[in-house]
Task: inverse folding
């Protein structure tokens, strides 16, 4: 009879970052059997083909120190947000997933050529900051029985009191009241990755992607504030000033992130509790600085 294993003994090890604690992970290699509709003289499908292999999945959990600076020298933020060189390439990593412990089971699998498709961050007052990553990669290795030492190094989780933000607005498209109080915020960086397949792929590549190409970077998010229904986004076309953006600066423990943004219209909501207004934003303009671009 097969053993049933506890999932908490699993580990994620990322080459440039090190071991990462998480709440959920779903990285795998997916492939479907495709059965096209053909005229075959019968009622049942009997022609098929194996589809292309897509490698990827998600990792999510609380923000720890590895989000900013991992044990391998880089952090989750660097991997998911930074672009490098004149061609704005991204960092490629190998990701090792350890599913089981002990026994004779196949316990470990390595996924290679992995990139971050989306990186999300969120924090609510009174709670632990959270991250989520959607990954895409080039190949999945064979299962093997390698063991990995338990990850026992203590880490402090990043709580809401270590996360702040500030807004500077250079035009009248968004009014910030004095002493504004935030209830929560979130943002998502999308790298819009594109898997590339080529004719005549060799046996080494097989049905896996030949390459992963980063696309345009899109940053969107929202900020929720208490008792400010009077704040508004752009009301009319004349409120726009093309070169004058709002600037949002996020401070996540020792990491400082700044982005230019345009604010959407405010969405106030009333309930039995406090009035909370949600203001969406979209990053517009070049994202500069060491937090966005590497050497």
Result:
């Amino acid at each position: 009879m097969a053993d049933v294993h506890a999932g908490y003994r699993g580990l994620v090890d990322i080459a440039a970052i090190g071991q990462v604690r998480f709440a959920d992970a779903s990285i795998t290699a997916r492939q479907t059997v495709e059965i096209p509709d053909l005229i075959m003289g019968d009622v049942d499908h009997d022609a098929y083909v194996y589809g292309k292999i897509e490698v990827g999945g998600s990792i999510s959990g609380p923000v720890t120190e590895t989000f900013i600076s991992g044990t391998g020298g880089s952090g989750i933020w660097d991997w998911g947000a930074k672009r490098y060189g004149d061609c704005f390439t991204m960092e490629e990593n190998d990701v090792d997933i350890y599913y089981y412990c002990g026994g004779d089971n196949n316990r470990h699998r390595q996924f290679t050529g992995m990139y971050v498709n989306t990186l999300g961050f969120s924090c609510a007052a009174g709670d632990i900051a959270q991250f989520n990553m959607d990954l895409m990669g080039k190949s999945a290795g064979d299962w093997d029985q390698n063991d990995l030492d338990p990850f026992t190094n203590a880490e402090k989780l990043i709580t809401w009191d270590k996360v702040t933000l500030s807004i500077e607005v250079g035009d009248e498209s968004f009014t910030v009241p004095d002493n504004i109080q935030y209830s929560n915020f979130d943002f998502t960086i999308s790298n819009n990755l594109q898997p590339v397949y080529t004719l005549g792929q060799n046996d080494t590549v097989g049905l896996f992607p030949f390459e992963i190409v980063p696309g345009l970077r899109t940053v969107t998010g929202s900020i929720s504030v208490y008792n400010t229904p009077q704040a508004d986004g752009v009301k009319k076309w004349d409120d726009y000033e093309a070169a004058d953006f709002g600037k949002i600066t996020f401070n996540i423990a020792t990491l400082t992130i700044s982005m230019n943004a345009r604010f959407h219209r405010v969405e106030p909501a009333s309930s039995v509790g406090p009035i909370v207004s949600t203001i969406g934003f979209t990053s517009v303009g070049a994202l500069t600085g060491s937090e966005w671009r590497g050497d």
